[in-house]
Structure prediction request, 592 residues.
Amino acid sequence: MNVEVVSCDLLVIGGGAAGTTAAVEAARNGARVILVDKGFCGYGNTRIAGGIVASCGVEEGDSEELFYEDIRRAGAYLNDPSLVRVLVKEAAAANEEIERWGHIYLRDDGGKGYGRVRTMQAGGHRAPRTLFSPYKGRSLSHILRFALLGSGVRVLEEVAVAELLLAENRERGVAGALCLDLVDAKHFVVSAEKTVLAAGGAGMLYFPHTDNMSCATGDGYALALLAGAELVDMELAQYLPFALVYPADMAGINIGDPANAGPHGVLRDNQGEIVLGDLHLKTRSEVSRCIVDAVAAGRGGPHGGLYLDLRDNLCSAEGKEAYRAGQETGMIEILRQAYGKEAARWEEPFEVYPTQHFSLGGVKIDSWGRTSVPNLYAVGEAAGGVHGADRLGSVALAECFVYGLRAARDACGSLNGGKRIKGRELAEMVSEKYVRADLLARDRIDSPILIHPYHLKLKLGALMHRFAGVRREEKGLNETLNLINKLKEKIMTLSCRDWDGYTCLQALEARFMILVAEAIVKSALARKESIGMHYRCDHPHPLPRWRRRNVEVALADDSKTIIAETNGEIFVRVVEKAQGENFKGGGDSFEN
Prediction:
């Protein structure tokens, strides 16, 4: 097999906020950087984000300690304290660095150097510390893309990563990646001394009940698992309670938080009875749980949601102000497009259901973004440990900037002057046999496609939404595992013969998603309590014995079986252990 090889010091996988930050910073520190993105850099979830970013110490009365405690409390103290400490300490400096690249946060008077930066006190924060991007995620992603293209980074767009390549001596860690060019459906190898995973989250595992872009298929989690790294907190995900349920092409789009319901908003069932009031005083998790429980009890509407009734807001000044705020955020226009003029004027109730917004867990890292696999880093939503059981608004982008910068600086500081595995050796390692699912093999199976991989992804999304979404219980989770195994058989036997690049991508994403789904379900089974956004209706309360304990997952020795444990102690023997060590990875530098 003739495989093209390209070489660099640092390979960055993912072109969102975290990946772009890492790539630009590494290039500015003299590294030869390649960034690959299966779409286009500066797009993905960063582009559709609200563009709000947490800082620290902007206003009087704020402090690192207060910010630290806010994040820890929101995460039910499941966060890694060392990761949170670094975030609050370096958030302000990271935002200043991003402004030096050309991004300007909104000021109260004029531009940079003319007046104070504008802040707001977002929900869960006890001080005003959230900064605004002028045109939300669009302006931020544009600036990051311009910084990237002017930095000397070699950018490879419409390129997917099929697998991380490990040195034959696995103690030497990751040596590069096997990539797939989606335009011509050809694969090639990137030889890299260091690799940064910045591929985002896994919202598409719950499609259509997610507000994520279609690129959020858990690639980074799967790549890390297959390379031998551990994942942490995979049972934890953040949901927003009010999202559209129809039409099909708009389902999952977020239309607001409980605070956006105004002082008089209520939830009603299919009989018009009030299910929950005082929505503006409730948390996201409280409202989300209420909706899914009521729907499960048969009280939902024809499209599977509860009715959000905002009519009484039109009778008070505070309620009218909530309506004006909805106009500014775009909520009203979204309602008009989906549900019509009456709903957009808040003159009739409309159906809502929670949507998956953010993956709280991810690859286990230390305070520099390093994983337990040598030469492999993870940053942004691909990494786990910062947020715990729930996430404060505006902290996600701050995390991207802080850890993108830190991972780049650490990687550049430990480069060995080009002493990497030779590209020829990596090319020899790549063969049809090496790619675990043979997804890139062109000559293995001559039979036609019996089922398109996209339809397998849809089946998986429906399954995860039904049994592993907001509302979970042991019976449904076990049923999900059984069905995942059946889907896995279909996915792992897919062949790419005569497929175009984007059909190959669908197969590759299906392979990644099934692995991540298994990790999520087994983690959810292991945590027999309800905390934050993890709601086990058969264990509806937090349990003292679970206090500050985290669930980790890794591949067993056979590289096929996921096992789950908590803080170094086998909590649930979820599968038969492989011969040899029970849990691969972990160490003193990764203690919580």
